[in-house]
């Protein structure tokens, strides 16, 4: 086996890089000037692969200054070096360096007729999420691929939150609550039946279109009913999501449901705070072995403005880590894509507001089983 070394490119590699580019590509080539510019940009990475001392491949990774995205802009392997895993080694090193730089997702474009490259990227865990039409000089189309590259290692400083995917389009709230409760009680069932029971208890009946989702009042009550401590943090008083429906009858139903929730809350020890849950308070809750369930807008995740519940599992100086119960299998998502999903703290601040005119912030903090129940079991 040849001796393979990965390192950062230097100015001394410039001539070899230009020569490799001209050997590997007939169109859309990087110029000498472009290589020199990328060598001078410390934020980006130009990684080269040497085989037995000879430069035989490179990977150019761009690091977006405004987002947590990285992008493989160009990848080239000399013909004589193919079959030795050079491309895979370059991609993996690019991912490692991007993750070390705090990037969450790696993206790339590949010609739709480049079957070997597409096969490599799929094998390495990349999934297609779009297409660029007329992308190349010859008007060829590019397929867009991405892969999550930053993963959180669970810490004993926080509760260990198991993952549970929602099984219906409308039960993200129950799924998020189930994960929070199961983190605090290993006997908590994680089943579709329990998910639907919670939805029946906590649903607002109407919201947007289709089946109603769950509100913070109902989720807090569902947690309390199952013996957990619970508190609710809601930035607005009165019936929630009332403005999402136009029918007056539906508005009246939402008001009656809210009245019922408030009556039931009054008969519990649930703390109701009419103020947003801050990041500091959220982190404090995690350190106290409590698990926050947060209402977000999915705009920051997938470009749609839909209310959605997620479970907060951990936090550090850069990120809030979420379990997102919704898995889009049609888009190639898997469980691994939705566990400990890192969200930049600043982005999370925007994400945890639903609505544009008067943004709603809502959260439920699930605490341990109540002592009276513990002593009776």
How would you describe this structure in keywords?
377 residues, alpha+beta, Aminopeptidase, Cathepsin B, Chain A, 2 domains, seven-stranded mixed sheet, 14 strands, 33% helix, elongated, acyltransferase
Percent strand equals 15-25%
Largest sheet: 7 strands, mixed
Query: How much helicity do the residues have?
Result: 25-40%
Number of domains: 2
Mean pLDDT: 91
Based on helices, strands and strand pairing, what is the structural class? alpha+beta
What is the H-and-E element order? EHHEEEHEHEEHHHEHEHEHEEHEHEH
So, CATH architecture of the largest domain?
Answer: Alpha-Beta Complex
Write up this protein.
- With 377 residues, the chain is α+β, with helices and mostly antiparallel strands.
- The chain has 2 domains: 4-148, Gcn5-related N-acetyltransferase (GNAT) (Aminopeptidase, 3-Layer(aba) Sandwich); 172-376, Cathepsin B, Chain A.
- It is built from 13 helices and 14 strands.
- Helix 5 (172-184) packs across helix 6 (192-202).
- The model has no long low-confidence stretch (mean pLDDT 91).
- It holds the Pfam family Acetyltransf_1.
- Keywords: Acyltransferase, Transferase.
Topology:
Layout: E1 4-8, H1 14-24, H2 32-39, E2 45-51, E3 54-63, E4 69-77, H3 86-100, E5 105-111, H4 115-123, E6 127-132, E7 142-148, H5 172-184, H6 192-202, H7 216-225, E8 228-234, H8 248-265, E9 271-273, H9 279-287, E10 291-297, H10 299-302, E11 307-315, E12 319-323, H11 335-338, E13 341-344, H12 345-351, E14 362-369, H13 371-376
Parallel strand pairs: 4-5, 8-9
Antiparallel strand pairs: 1-2, 2-3, 3-4, 5-7, 6-7, 8-14, 10-11, 10-14, 11-12, 12-13
Helix pairs in contact: 5-6, 6-7
């Amino acid at each position: 086996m040849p001796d393979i070394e990965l390192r950062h490119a230097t100015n001394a590699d410039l001539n070899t890089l230009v020569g490799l580019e001209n050997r590997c590509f007939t169109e859309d080539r990087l110029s000498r000037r472009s290589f020199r510019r990328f060598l001078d940009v410390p934020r980006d990475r130009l990684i080269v692969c040497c085989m037995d001392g000879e430069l035989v491949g490179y990977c150019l990774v761009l690091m977006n200054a405004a987002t947590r995205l990285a992008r493989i802009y160009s990848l080239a392997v000399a013909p004589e070096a193919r079959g030795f895993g050079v491309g895979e080694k370059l991609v993996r090193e690019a991912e490692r360096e991007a993750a070390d730089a705090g990037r969450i997702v790696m993206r790339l474009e590949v010609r739709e007729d480049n079957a070997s490259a597409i096969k490599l990227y799929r094998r390495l865990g990349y999934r297609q999420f779009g297409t660029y039409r007329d992308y190349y000089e010859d008007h060829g189309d590019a397929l867009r691929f991405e892969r999550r590259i930053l993963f959180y290692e669970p810490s004993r400083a926080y509760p260990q939150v198991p993952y549970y995917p929602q099984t219906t389009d409308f039960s993200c709230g129950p799924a998020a609550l189930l994960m929070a409760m199961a983190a605090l009680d290993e006997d908590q069932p994680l089943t579709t039946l329990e998910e639907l029971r919670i939805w029946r208890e906590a649903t607002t009946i109407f919201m947007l279109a289709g089946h109603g989702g769950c509100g913070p009042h109902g989720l807090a009550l569902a947690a309390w009913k199952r013996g957990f401590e619970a508190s609710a943090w809601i930035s607005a008083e009165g019936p929630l999501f009332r403005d999402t429906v136009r029918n007056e009858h539906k508005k009246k139903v939402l008001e009656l449901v809210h009245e019922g929730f408030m009556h039931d809350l009054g008969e519990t020890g649930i703390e109701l705070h009419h103020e947003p849950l801050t990041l500091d308070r959220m982190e404090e809750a995690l350190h106290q072995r409590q698990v926050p369930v947060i209402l977000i807008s999915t705009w920051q995740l997938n470009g749609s403005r839909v209310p959605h519940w997620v479970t907060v599992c951990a936090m550090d100086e850069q990120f809030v880590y979420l379990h997102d119960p919704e898995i889009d299998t049609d888009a190639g998502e898997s469980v691994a894509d939705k566990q400990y999903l890192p969200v930049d703290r600043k982005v999370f601040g925007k994400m945890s507001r639903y609505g544009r005119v008067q943004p709603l912030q809502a959260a439920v903090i699930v605490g341990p089983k109540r002592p009276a129940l513990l002593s009776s079991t």
